[in-house]
Design brief:
heterodimer; A: alpha+beta; Immunoglobulin-like; 8 helices; 12 strands; about 35% helix; B: mainly alpha; 16 helices
Chain lengths: ~325, ~550
């Protein structure tokens, strides 16, 4: 750890959007505080014990000048052994009490009334977000309002899974919480600052576990309200003046797309894949794997396996013309 | 004070060799000799160590740079599943059972294990399990043509293992292999416990038993308690997959968390099953190369036994992120932190043993010295992980991977290498090359630190484990590259070690009975020991019978 300690220090300064030492919400701050204490205690222990070990190894090495006699045989010492039992116990008690305080502060505080509630549902290999109070369903990009001390508005996540176990981990906001089928877990986050916070699924969930990315957009209350009112609208259906998109809508509604995807206000009511009602308002597709632009979208619809092998969306074997039409339609779903 | 009674052990003589065996393979296949079985365990584990190592290197190449396309996600997922399963069940367990098989009867003055036939059965069942696991590469596609090797991760969390998420037979191969390995492990554990409790030579009270058999006693007892639930869970999983039971089937009211409990009530004691024998090797090697008796023998025994008990109450620290609630998490934080107390006692006792000694830095000892530092660090990162909120960040990240490789490689494998160099002369009658040993040590040490020190960092920067690739913008790239470079150094060290094993057998110096001037009973018999070990049952008066013999003027028996 003589080696590890500088590494920890470097890490704290490292440029990474997912650095656990750059907390941006209360749960992550509490953990950060605890981690600094634990790191300094363990580093202190390392210095003392490692130092003694190193000293003994050098001081008591066999030298050519040594006599042939065996060294004095010492079988033990009750006083010394008692001391190196009691001191660690005291350290353990101290660390335990501090840890317990952080656990209680994060897991056992009552839920306030004014929270933003979001239901998180893990899927192989994407995230579904439902805002029950607002009537919004979206996917992969979680929008939440910021929460400052004067006007706290923490976001409560109620989490479950539609298939296998996942884990919700956005390191700068909070520790991870597993998202487990047939079980409901909760956690909360309250970033005071506007920003995009990244993370990803942290429990192995199958072939594309690696590309089940998390994007949390913390927005000012005004921006969040604007986003929410847009998301509450049904999908655009009137494409007069855009015949390509209109034709694309027809192709979409007459293909298997509607078995898995919902486009609110249309016949597409599938629940297996992400809700596409406002697909064009998102920055990314494929659970954060690629940017949401017409080119990527077309490639994705053509064959998702070229971008995310193992994705559960099948290649639809559409001809080039239909691909162009569907892409034109989906890019209009603002 | 009279000269201690040490009849017999110094009088053992090998009888004249019988007629040459017609068929060497036949003798090895049918043997019930604990030494031959021990060696087969070790050889078999070394083969799997190389296989698991190749799997690790393939994964490190894939992760060396962001967005790499060296191997597909399907293959990557199979690789980490096979790597974990192989290293735990088909390297760690068998190699440690191998050393136990070889050494325990020799060190307690017995002629064989208590149940020689059970011993052979356990070995062959475990060996078959390993082959079965790897046969999945050819046989698991089944009629579905889906999947080949298992890809559910070594802890195979439900319900990813359910038929609907894991079609084909890959998971079945995993389940059966782990089940059979469990049967073999329980058989050997039963054998070790019985041997130690019932077959010690005259005068060897429990309080005079060397620490190695003591630690194997605790380890084998843990195997009973810990491996049985896992073995049972494999049957439950198979019932789920084939006759529609719902233990872990979440879509029909089953519980994913139940599997986690079954797995980790095995999984955490398993860590101690693997590390206690490593402690055992260090307990034998450090005193001999410091030329001092083990400091605080009773405390070492007490610490080992209490680690055994406490390790049964810490499993849910693998589940801090499952949402067990504040009360559950708090309990497991406490249990986990408490285990650092007996573990600390061990480190302090080793420190006190070398204190005031005349330390000889032969190859077995330098591996143990590295063990001491690396195990200390592994313990300290373990304390970080035991603080549940810190674990909410670190759990399932590369920090955890680095932490447990500090235990499995930095502690257990280093101690094992020390044990190889230490007991090889006893097994073969030849010394291993010290020069090659030093090359092995330094290459492996550099490789180990490049890989596993730097592996902590991407974890702290939010990199989860078990991802086959990652984006460039996360700041993980450079760290993973260094980690990969370290793997090459480790591979080089390992190859030198294998070469040394073979070369020394033919070209090594003659070792004689007791090349290290050691104190326990195995050094009283010829190298290699005769089939029957001891011609006459030895009698001991202290923990170090050969010390008593060499120093009749100052025997240990006066102080115990």
């Amino acid at each position: 750890m003589a080696f590890l300690a500088p590494l920890f220090a470097v890490t704290a300064l490292a440029q990474s959007p997912t650095n656990i030492f750059a907390p941006a919400a209360t749960p992550a701050h509490s953990i950060f505080g605890l981690s600094m204490l634990v790191l300094s205690v363990t580093f202190g222990i390392f210095l003392v014990v490692g130092g003694l070990l190193l000293y003994a190894l050098i001081r008591y090495r066999h030298r050519p000048s040594d006599s042939d006699h065996e060294p004095a045989q010492i079988y033990g010492s009750n006083q010394i052994e008692l001391s190196w039992t009691v001191i660690p116990i005291l350290i353990v008690v101290m660390l335990f009490l501090t840890t317990t305080r952080v656990i209680l502060r994060t897991e056992a505080i009552p839920k306030p009334d004014n929270t933003m509630d979001v239901t998180v549902i893990g899927h192989q290999f994407w995230w579904e977000y439902r805002y029950p109070k607002l009537g919004i369903v979206t996917a992969n990009e979680l929008h939440i309002p910021t929460s400052d001390k004067a006007n706290p508005k923490p976001t409560y996540l109620t989490m479950s899974s539609a298939d296998v176990s996942h884990s919700f981990w956005v390191p700068r906001l909070a520790g991870k919480m597993d998202v487990i089928p047939n079980r409901v877990n909760t956690m909360w986050i309250d970033p005071p600052d506007v920003g995009l916070y990244l993370g990803q699924c942290a429990q192995y969930c199958g072939t594309q576990h690696a590309k089940m990315l998390l994007r949390v957009y913390a927005q000012s209350p005004e921006d969040f309200a604007a986003w929410a009112s847009q998301q509450q609208k049904p999908a655009q259906q009137d494409f007069t003046g855009n015949p390509t998109a209109a034709a694309g809508q027809t192709v979409f509604m007459h293909n298997a797309c509607i078995n898995c995807h919902t486009v609110k206000g249309t016949v597409a009511t599938g629940r297996f894949g992400p809700d596409l009602t406002h697909l064009a308002s998102r920055d990314t597709i494929a659970a954060g794997a690629v940017q949401n632009n017409p080119e990527n979208l077309r490639r994705w619809i053509d064959d998702p396996n070229t971008m995310k092998p193992g994705s559960l969306m099948p290649a639809m074997h559409l001809n080039d013309h239909d691909l162009d039409l569907i892409t034109a339609y989906l890019t209009q779903l603002h | 004070m009279a000269t201690p009674v040490l009849e017999a052990i110094d009088q053992t003589q090998a009888p004249p060799q019988g007629p040459p065996r017609p068929n060497v393979i036949y003798t090895w296949l049918t043997t019930v000799d604990h030494k031959k079985i021990g060696l087969m365990y070790i050889a078999y584990a070394l083969v799997f160590l190389l296989v698991g190592g190749v799997e690790a290197i393939l994964m490190r190449i894939q992760l060396a740079v962001p967005n790499n396309h060296f191997i597909s996600p399907q293959v990557f997922n199979q690789l980490f599943t096979m790597h974990g399963t192989t290293m735990v069940f088909f390297v760690g367990m068998p190699i440690l059972f191998g050393f136990g098989n070889y050494l325990v009867p020799l060190m307690i003055g017995a002629r064989d294990m208590a149940f020689p036939r059970l011993n052979a059965f356990s070995f062959w069942v475990s060996a078959f399990a390993g082959l079965l696991l790897y046969f999945s590469y050819f046989g698991a596609s089944g009629l579905y043509a889906a999947g080949s090797a298992p890809d559910v991760g070594w802890f195979a969390y439900a319900p990813l293992t359910a038929k609907v998420f894991s079609p084909g037979h890959s998971t079945d191969y995993w389940t059966l292999a782990v089940f059979l390995s469990g049967v073999g492990s329980i058989g050997t554990a039963l054998n070790i416990v019985t041997t130690i409790l019932c077959m010690r030579c005259k005068g060897m009270k429990m309080s005079r038993m060397p620490l190695l058999p003591w630690l194997y006693l605790v380890m084998a007892s843990l195997v009973f308690v810990a491996v049985s639930p896992l073995t049972a869970a494999q049957i439950m999983l198979t019932l789920d997959r084939y006759i529609g039971s719902h233990f872990f089937d979440t879509q029909a009211g089953g519980s994913a968390v139940l599997w986690m409990h079954f797995f980790w009530i095995f999984g955490h004691p398993e860590v101690y099953v693997l590390v206690l024998p490593a402690f055992a090797f260090v307990n034998e090697i450090v005193p001999v190369f410091s030329r001092k008796a083990m400091f605080g023998y009773p405390a070492m025994v007490a610490a080992s036994v209490s680690i055994g008990f406490i390790s049964l109450s810490v499993w849910a620290h693998h589940m801090f992120t499952v949402g067990l609630g504040a009360a559950g998490n708090t309990f497991f934080v406490f249990a986990t932190m408490v285990i650092s107390v007996p573990t600390g006692i061990k480190i302090f006792n080793w420190l006190a043993t070398i204190w005031g000694g005349k330390i000889i830095f032969a190859t077995p000892m330098i591996f143990c010295v590295a063990f001491l530092f690396q195990f200390l660090i592994a313990g300290l990162t373990g304390i970080m992980l035991s603080a549940a909120p810190f674990d909410w960040q670190l759990g399932n990240s590369y920090f955890v991977v680095a932490h447990f490789h500090y235990v499995l490689v930095g502690s257990i494998l280093f101690a094992l290498f020390g044990a190889f160099y230490y007991w090889y002369p006893k097994v073969t009658g030849k010394m291993m090359s010290e020069t090659l040993g030093k090359w092995h040590f330094w290459l492996f040490l550099i490789g180990f630190h490049l890989t596993f020190d730097f592996m902590h960092v991407p974890g702290l920067l939010g990199m989860p484990r078990r991802i086959y690739t990652y984006e460039a913008g996360r700041g993980w790239g450079g760290w993973n590259f260094i980690v990969g470079v370290g793997a090459i150094f480790q591979a080089a060290g390992l190859l030198i070690f294998c070469y040394n094993l073979v070369r020394s057998y033919y070209r090594g110096k003659e070792a004689g009975h007791d090349p290290w001037d050691a104190w326990t009973l195995e050094w009283a018999v010829p190298s290699p020991p005769p089939v029957y070990n001891f011609a006459i049952e030895p009698t001991v008066n202290s923990r170090r019978p050969l010390w008593d013999l060499k120093h009749p003027e100052d025997p240990d028996s006066d102080y115990e």
